[in-house]
Design brief:
Strand content of chain A: 5-15%
Number of helices of chain A: 16
Radius of gyration of chain B: 16 Å
Shape of chain A: globular
Structural class of chain B: alpha/beta
CATH class of chain A: Mainly Alpha
Helix content of chain A: 40-55%
Order of helices and strands of chain B: HEHEHEHEH
CATH superfamily of chain A: Cytochrome-c3 Hydrogenase, chain B
Distance between the termini of chain B: 28 Å
Oligomer: heterodimer
Largest sheet of chain B: 4 strands, parallel
Strand order of the largest sheet of chain B: 1-2-3-4
Number of domains of chain A: 1
């Protein structure tokens, strides 16, 4: 019994892998010696299929990358395409985009919070989170006509205008979501077992985070004040007030705190945006629907945006035809997942689910 | 004569029991899994229809909901999970991807429908289907099992 290290497979079917992740774990007793994530179980050629159609046709594949935050994904593509074509976007469209993106950020974090609760052995927060998330989805249903995958942002604006009914729904949601969020936060933070299981678990130091290209809530939980909405503003993020939540610990509990605080900031942004939406056109007349499939682009462009998972952007190369030459997707989940072995080494096997779910990986985005 | 009457009624009772106590399998593949979770969540609450005991192990479950794109790498695993399930077992193919490849049908790594790997009882259209559509599919499957049209 000299060699005590055994290898255990985790996934691809497991309730806490958030999809189809497989991890090869090397165990000495119950201590994790090494972990090796195996990906590719949801590889569905989003990049190559995007290069097969006209510019707006890629949007349906972009939608399905990070399927809990579709609008954030669309925003990255649309901004990049507009930069490639030098398209002017009406102000109203930009403000509408900003508001919906923030609402979708809340919805995405709620999905994470609910499933994180499930992974930690709590069923109650799942139902609380889904109750609030359904309210956001009803707003999106009213505006875009779809619940989960919207295809709403178009090059040069948005596909349909925002209705007064939707504005009322958003105001109603924003007015009392803050208190509901406190209720949900209390379920976690006042639970002794949850705090015990997440404090000092899955630690990631700032140097490791930076060297692995980790972005988003994980980087902010490790102590770096970096948010692209503040550091490289796109849309009109320089005209609204909000803070960047930062924690120094770099453990699972810090990530939980950062994400909860981000939802509060998103409410704050959306409240400011709703009072600032100007009247006017919601799309550029030059990019009306029949024109969209004839758009041509030359050169290359990349606009980094802050999606709920981290830095997301689409690198577009146009060769002057109506079809993009290259669509390269920089997905935050993929980079974040690469730091997983560092976070797991030395911890016990029971901490694995907490760490994996704290990453918030979405496999449409990791495997593309 | 009386024996045969007893047998058919017992059979009916068995079918009713099988149909109304389906244990689904927690098996999310892609986008549709989020809508599947919505269907079991607070607003749609499909515990009302007697199928709320989500099981994490295939050996406990008798309903597999294939929710998402089936890739060539995942297809053998799906077959293996299906084989591990105990009889009676049923399969719902949720969404365009699982039914026929969906928007990814031209891709090089995507299987054109999960019915090439496992036998499917009910197909649900939509990309992704709304939770109402999934609940309707569940009701259809239950009715099929109770009336004897669907056999594992």
């Amino acid at each position: 019994m000299e060699d005590k290290v055994i290898e255990v497979n985790f996934g691809p079917q497991h309730p806490s892998t958030h999809g189809v992740l497989r991890i090869k774990v090397k165990l000495d007793g119950e201590i994790i010696m090494d972990a090796y994530p195996v990906i590719g179980y949801l590889h569905r050629n989003a990049e190559k299929l995007s290069e097969m159609g006209a510019y707006p046709k890629a949007l349906i594949y972009i939608d399905r990358l990070d399927y809990v935050a579709s609008l954030n994904n669309e925003l990255g593509y649309v901004l990049s395409a507009e930069k490639l074509m030098d398209a002017q976007v009406p102000e109203r469209a930009q403000w509408i985009r900003m508001m919906l993106v923030e609402l979708n950020r809340i919805a995405s974090h709620l999905v994470w919070l609910g499933t994180h609760g499930l992974d930690m052995g709590m069923l109650t927060p799942y139902f609380y989170c889904w109750r609030e998330r359904e309210r956001i989805l009803r707003i999106f249903d009213e505006i875009t006509g779809s619940r989960l995958l919207y295809n709403y942002f178009a090059i040069g604006g948005v596909y349909s205008d925002i209705t007064p009914k939707a504005i009322d729904m958003i105001k109603e949601f924003l007015s009392d979501f803050g208190s509901k969020l406190e209720e949900i936060q209390a379920i976690f933070a006042k639970n002794y077992i949850y705090v015990k299981r997440t404090r000092d678990v899955g630690k990631l130091s700032l140097e490791d985070a930076l060297s692995y290209g980790v972005t988003g809530p994980l980087l902010r939980a490790s102590g770096k004040k970096w948010d692209l909405r503040k550091n490289q503003p796109y849309l009109y993020y320089d005209q609204v007030n909000f803070d960047i939540p930062v924690r120094q610990e770099g453990d699972v509990y810090a990530r939980f705190q950062v994400r909860i605080e981000e939802m509060r900031q998103s409410i704050k942004i959306a409240q400011q945006v709703i009072s600032k939406i100007p009247e006017g056109e919601f799309y550029n007349k030059k990019f009306s629907k029949p024109m969209l499939v004839r758009l041509k682009g030359t050169g290359d462009s990349y606009v980094p945006t802050e999606s709920p998972k981290g830095e997301y952007g689409v690198y577009l190369v146009g060769d002057g035809s109506t079809i993009p030459y290259r669509v390269r997707i920089r997905s935050p989940s993929f980079a974040n997942l690469s730091a997983l072995p560092i976070m797991l080494k030395g911890y016990k096997i029971a901490d694995l689910t907490a760490t994996v779910s704290s990453l918030d990986p979405v496999f449409g985005e990791v495997d593309r | 004569m009386s024996d045969s009457i007893l047998l058919t009624t017992l059979d009916e009772a068995m079918r009713w029991g099988k149909g109304k106590s389906l244990w689904p399998f927690t098996f999310g593949l892609a986008c549709c899994a989020i809508e599947m979770m919505s269907a079991m969540g607070s607003d749609y609450d499909w515990a009302r229809f007697g199928a709320d005991v989500f099981r994490d192990s295939p050996r406990h479950a008798d309903l597999m909901i294939v929710s998402g794109t089936v890739t060539k790498k995942m297809a053998p695993r799906i077959r293996r999970l299906y084989d591990q399930m105990a009889f009676p077992k049923y399969v719902i193919s949720m969404g365009a991807c699982a039914s026929a490849g969906g928007p990814y049908v031209r891709g090089y790594s995507v299987v054109d429908g999960v019915d090439q790997v496992v036998p499917v009882d009910v197909y649900v259209f939509g990309c992704p289907p709304r939770p109402e559509a999934l609940i309707s599919a569940l009701k259809q499957l239950q009715d099929g099992i109770v009336s004897g049209k669907v056999k594992h």
